[in-house]
Design brief:
The chain has about 375 residues and is α/β, with parallel strands linked by helices. Helix content is about 35%, strand content about 15%. The strands form two sheets. The chain has an eight-stranded mixed beta sheet with strand order 3-2-1-4-5-6-14-15, sandwiched between helices. Helix 6 packs across helix 7 and helix 11 packs across helix 12. The protein is globular. The protein starts with a strand and ends with a helix. Bound molecules: nicotinamide-adenine-dinucleotide. The site of nicotinamide-adenine-dinucleotide has 32 residues, from helix 6, helix 7 and strand 8. Nicotinamide-adenine-dinucleotide binds next to helix 6, helix 7 and strand 8.
Length: about 375
């Protein structure tokens, strides 16, 4: 199969769909790869590394979209990219179609076979191609939170780990799933006092077993959250109600009970945020202050550590990319019900039920397009 890797064009997006190591795996399987010049530079991957891995470099994305049988990307295609997609071509990338009617319509109009990372499932539960980015965002959250707590950043001037004789900061993590667990691991490592709140007893039990006595676990009630948020130096929002908007666990009224200069890092902002006062920010202007509380609400946190994120993403996406290339999309999806769950659109048909429901469009089960 001829596989294309265009350079990402979304603002401040430095990740890339395939690393040179992934290219080498694909070429080892007998496939060919076209990589756009400088596609990997933002992740510290040179054109020379791609050539050494067996890729052919091309100057313009137009050539990649015109020739490749499968396009491997990171972010959803922007309008210019959507216009280049065509019937019979596979698009393998994050799509997030439910909140994006314009993209949904364009992908249907293109006729392309669109496989969304975020809806591929796993036999062990969860969403394996979303997990690595939640791991990255979770591990990044205490780091950006610690920075925001510095006086010069508008924070209350508290060191996360304290020092001998001075108590460590209080970190409260809302949601003990993938992002929350990784946030707790790093916050504990930085020496903070860490409390994780979740409405799932299973999640709390798993956290306690995994992180030991160092982490406090609290069942999520309104009263418990109100009390913990008022005492927190750093609140990390990491809840997820799959497919739905994040529940607003921190209300506007709670902000007035918080310490001046306390910080909220709302990882769940990509699902609308779990604080009433959260609104999306960017890496170039990541924070703002409401009622004296610093809010960090960057919706693409992994972009800050593009190199780590690119490798983490490739670890998860490569096995499926190989299956699609080796078997062709139809056989690969027939053989693997979890990869099949990733099919969002094919030949003008919408094959992801939640997306169809979100937009009031006709749903066609993936099975019926597989023949
Ligand atoms: N901002 C970013 O750059 C970025 C990057 C990656 C992931 N995310 C987001 O981070 C969020 C968390 O992702 P995840 O993979 O850790 O999800 P997850 O499903 O692994 O964990 C979510 C946890 O939230 C808990 N939860 C749900 N509703 C709750 C409630 N009302 N009260 C208390 N707990 C509740 C669940 O029980 C679960 O344990 C998602 O919104 C995800 O999209 C954001």
């Amino acid at each position: 199969m001829l596989i294309g890797v265009p350079k990402e064009i979304k603002d401040n997006e430095f990740r890339v769909g395939l690393t040179p190591a992934s290219v080498a795996e694909l070429t080892h399987h007998g496939h060919s790869v076209l990589a756009e010049k400088s596609a990997g530079l933002g992740s510290g991957l040179s054109d020379g590394e791609y050539v050494a891995a067996g890729a052919t470099l091309v100057d313009a994305p137009q050539e990649i979209f015109a020739r490749a049988e499968m396009i491997v990307k990171v972010k959803e295609p922007l309008v210019a990219e959507r216009k280049r997609l065509r019937r019979g071509q596979i698009l393998y990338t994050y799509l997030h179609l439910a909140p994006d009617l314009a993209q949904t319509k364009d992908l249907l109009a293109s006729g392309a076979t669109c496989i969304a990372y975020e809806t591929v499932t796993s036999p062990h539960g969860g969403l394996p191609l979303l997990t690595p980015m939640s791991e990255v965002a979770g591990r990044l959250a205490p780091q950006v939170g610690a920075h925001a707590l510095e006086k010069a950043q508008g924070g209350r001037g508290v060191l996360l780990g304290g020092v001998p004789g001075v108590p460590a900061a209080e970190v409260v993590i809302l949601g003990g799933g993938v992002a929350g667990t990784h946030a707790a691991t790093i916050a504990l490592g930085m020496g903070a006092n860490v409390t994780v709140v979740d409405k799932s007893n299973e999640a709390l039990q798993r956290l306690a077993a995994q992180l030991g006595a160092g982490v406090r676990t609290v069942y999520a009630t309104r009263a418990a959250i109100a009390e913990l948020v008022a005492r927190a130096d750093l609140v990390i929002g990491a809840v997820l109600a799959p497919g739905a908007a994040a529940p607003k666990l921190v209300t506007r009224a709670m902000l007035s009970t918080m310490k001046p200069g306390a910080v909220i890092v709302d990882i769940a902002i990509d699902q609308g945020g779990c604080c009433e006062t959260s609104k999306p920010t960017t890496h170039s202007n990541p924070t703002y202050v409401v009622d004296g509380v610093v809010h960090y609400c960057v919706a693409n946190m992994p972009g800050a550590v593009a190199r780590t994120s690119t490798f983490a993403l490739n670890n998860a996406t490569l096995p499926f990319a190989l299956a699609l290339a080796d078997k062709g999309w139809k056989q690969a999806l027939k053989d693997d019900v979890h990869l099949r769950a990733g099919l969002n659109a094919h030949d003008g048909k919408l094959t992801c039920k939640p997306v169809a429901e979100a937009h009031g469009l006709v749903y066609t089960p993936a099975e019926s397009v597989l023949g």
